[in-house]
Amino acid sequence: MRIEKVDLPGIGIRHDLITESGRRLAVVRYRDGERELALYDADDPDSCKESLRISEDEAESLADLFSASLAVSRLTKLTEETDGLYTDKIALPSDSPFIGRTLGDTKTRTRTHVSVVAVIRDRRVIASPTPDEMLHEGDVIVSVGTRPGLDAAARLLADGPE
């Protein structure tokens, strides 16, 4: 896989992602802020097979989906390579006593020996959240730790401290 940047004078910039299989996917960012996705013909890399204009919101959502997926997959790969270390996505229940409070209020690391590495909110990833990060209904807490620690963290976030 490689990425190529192509300046399009007077138009904008095109970034081409050439996949391991040789397929070419382009993202064109026009000078006016518009964006377009393009898929090139497998047999003729200069021939655009299909293109799709996307709005700024759609581009942002795609970026969020890819970054959330990438962050979680990297953590999952790390835990697969390490015995006894697990990654878990813990959905914050709607009746959690921590909704509207900060991540620091949970004292998750102190109470469960689990590290919170991200919060996923509305398909956006908040990587390495600080203790001041406010928790909201619908948040998903991405955590790393032992299996007993992750189970304890899920109970803590659902029910509060014992």
How would you describe this protein?
The protein has 162 residues and is α+β, with helices and mostly antiparallel strands. The chain folds into two domains: 2-54, no CATH class; 64-159, Regulator of K+ conductance, C-terminal domain (Alpha-Beta Plaits, 2-Layer Sandwich), CATH 3.30.70. Helices cover 29% and strands 35% of the residues. It has helices at 56-80, 103-106, 108-112, 147-159, and strands at residues 2-8, 12-18, 24-30, 35-40, 48-54, 86-91, 115-121, 124-127, 140-145. It has a five-stranded antiparallel β-sheet. Strands 6-9-7-8 form a four-stranded antiparallel β-sheet, with helices on both faces. Strand 1 and strand 2 (12-18) form a beta hairpin. The N and C termini lie far apart (50 Å).
List strands and helices in order, with pairings.
Elements: E1 2-8, E2 12-18, E3 24-30, E4 35-40, E5 48-54, H1 56-80, E6 86-91, H2 103-106, H3 108-112, E7 115-121, E8 124-127, E9 140-145, H4 147-159
Antiparallel strand pairs: 1-2, 2-3, 3-4, 4-5, 6-9, 7-8, 7-9
Give me the strand/helix succession.
Answer: EEEEEHEHHEEEH
End-to-end CA span: 50 Å
The fold-level CATH name of the largest domain is Alpha-Beta Plaits
Write down the CATH class of the largest domain. Alpha Beta
Number of strands: 9
**Count of helix runs:** 4
CA-based gyration radius: 21 Å
CATH architecture of the largest domain: 2-Layer Sandwich
Portion in strands: 35-45%
Structural class: alpha+beta
Q: What is the domain tally?
A: 2
Please estimate the helix content: 25-40%
Biggest β-sheet, characterized?
5 strands, antiparallel
